[in-house]
Amino acid sequence: MKEVASPCRWGILGAASIARKNVRAMHLADNARPVAIASRNPVKAAAFAEEHGVDRTHRDYESLLRDPDVDAVYIPLPTTLHREWTVRAAEAGKHVLCEKPVAANATDAEAMIEACRDAGVQFMDGLMFMHHERMRRVESMLPRLGAEPNLLTSGFSFRGDADFFENNIRGDVEAEPLGCVGDLGWYCIRMAIEVMGGIPEAVRARHHRMHGAIPIHTTAELDFPGPDGVRHAMIQCSFLHPLRQWVEICGPDGAMWMEDFVIGSPTEAVLRLETESNLTDRDLVHERRIERIVVEDCVQEVEMIRRFSDIARNDRPLEPRWATRSHETQRVVDAIMASASVGGARIPIDP
Questions:
Q1: What b/e string do you get for 37-54 counting C-beta neighbours within 10 Å, with b at 16 or more?
Q2: Looking at the domain assignment, is residue 171 inside a domain?
Q3: What's the pLDDT tens digit per position in 272-318?
Q4: Is 226 part of a structural domain of the chain?
Q5: Same domain, 77 and 162
Q6: Domain count for the chain
Q7: Residue 99 sits in which domain range?
Q8: What is the DSSP string of 148-204?
Q9: pLDDT tens for residues 16-36?
Q10: Closest by alpha carbon to 103, among 323, 322, 330?
């Protein structure tokens, strides 16, 4: 009989709410298993472990990293703690899946990535939509838009109430200094980088509303180089507006849309592609050709965990591109924050 490979054994650093979805994904993936959780609040760790089927708890993060039965760690801690615990995890020989934003700034992100590279372990940010099969369809259909996409617009927002701003960790500048830019803009930035094929050459941005020192409504324009001139991406992120998570990608010959690109449907994720869009009959009639592409039965967080677990089990080689994209995204976040701090001035980004 063929020997079945052991699952990737996961440890979770912290019992944050976002961890619930990924621990569920660890149970659903056929190559993963959550074996340990650590929290500085033992009661909270025990409750999480019992509710979500985690084998055991540790009294602190250091103890979990010393656990020989843990192959990989998932880090849903506050952003300002990511550098310390990613570096420590790498030094302990653990592969690292880190929540976004990966760091408070690009310098910290680079240190985290270097620590993982030096230790020979995988680093990846927890950007689930990148693992949805729909993204493969997007990539394969980009050529149908023309020579290359030259315009992208996207937005991700949700409306926080008074309790959110008062009690949620995302209202604490010491824990989450990047506000909506790091929490929501990260997705829009990554989509732009993926579609445009690399990092922008410059950024202009404005914070339209602040909660203390934290941006809660920000817009930005990203300039990407292209053979026929500058290509643009416009993004908006906010804690002040209704739930929106849309992207439109345009080229000279067509456009495509997703209305839920961040949290793609696990049962029926839709991509719309429009070509041959023209005004006719003295500009009175709009002729369009729209294709509706549906991707069924793809749970993006499960696909992310499955891919990462394959890497941690040596079923596939380390994939440095995830760390590269994380660092590029962090550099754009830094540029947005810098531009907004000086009233929207153009901030160049080195290639």
A1: bbbeeeeebbebbeebeb
A2: yes
A3: 999 876 766 566 666 778 999 999 999 999 999 999 999 999 999 99
A4: yes
A5: no
A6: 2
A7: 8-128
A8: S--EEEEEEE----HHHHHHSGGG-TTT-TTHHIIIIIHHHHHHHHHHHTS--SEEE
A9: 888 999 999 999 999 999 999
A10: 330
